[in-house]
Amino acid sequence: MNYLATVTSKRQLTIPIDIYRLMNLVEGNKVLVSIEDQVIKIEPAQALVEKLAGSVKLPKRFKNKTVDQIITLAKKEYFKNK
Q1: For the chain, what is the domain count?
Q2: Sign of CA pseudo-dihedral 45, 49, 52, 56
Q3: Domain for residue 4, yes or no?
Q4: What is the chain's Cα-based Rg?
Q5: Phi, psi values for residue 39, rounded to 5°
Q6: Across the 82 residues of the chain, what is the mean pLDDT of every consecutive 10-residue run?
Q7: Pick from 80, 59, 71: nearest CA to 28
Q8: CA-to-CA distance for 19 and 1, rounded, in angstroms?
Q9: CA–CA distance from 39 to each of 34, 35, 58 (Å)?
Q10: Which domain holds residue 60?
Q11: Does residue 2 lie within any of the structural domains?
């Protein structure tokens, strides 16, 4: 099914409620945005984590943390060394 959405002057796009609910998105979720054959693709960042699960060794300091916690910790570590 197709939906119509409008891009704002701030380059923002509202996801239609049916798609939002179908994808089980909640406020604050991270999404990956890519382009494939002139089509914008949006998918939950959690999907990438699940695809990579087991293929990348997770450092001990990141074990038992959510994706958002890992990102926050990694940013702190990165910018601390700058």
Answers
A1: 1
A2: positive
A3: no
A4: 16
A5: -120, 130
A6: 93 93 91 92 81 77 88 89 70
A7: 71
A8: 10
A9: 8, 5, 32
A10: 17-80
A11: no
